[in-house]
Specification:
This protein has 86 residues and is of the alpha+beta class. The chain is 29% helix and 33% strand. The protein has a five-stranded mixed β-sheet. The model has no long low-confidence stretch (mean pLDDT 91).
């Protein structure tokens, strides 16, 4: 199983979103960390930059994965989460 590290920005987003959506996103993140093949159809490599995208309903999780550590960079609604601003 991969270690999961969450950025300050992503953690803040999780705290501010509805509790049921946050719980669903957390469950999917840990499911991917445990068994990446189980969510293969919901994970796509980003084009034009490093990282991957995990789709959880209308929410997107942008993360980096080196095989040992999964670093969650951003979490947001589809569309707006892809903007490059830090």
């Amino acid at each position: 199983m991969r270690s999961v590290v969450v950025s300050k920005r992503a953690a803040k987003t999780l705290l501010r979103m509805p509790a049921n959506a946050a719980a669903r996103i957390r469950a999917k993140i840990f499911q991917y960390a445990k068994d990446p093949a189980s969510l293969a159809n919901n994970v796509v490599k980003l084009q034009g930059r490093e990282g991957y995208r995990l789709r959880v309903g209308d929410w997107r999780v942008i993360f980096a994965d080196d095989g040992r550590v999964m670093f969650i960079e951003r979490i947001g609604p589809r569309g707006g989460v892809y903007d490059q601003e830090s």
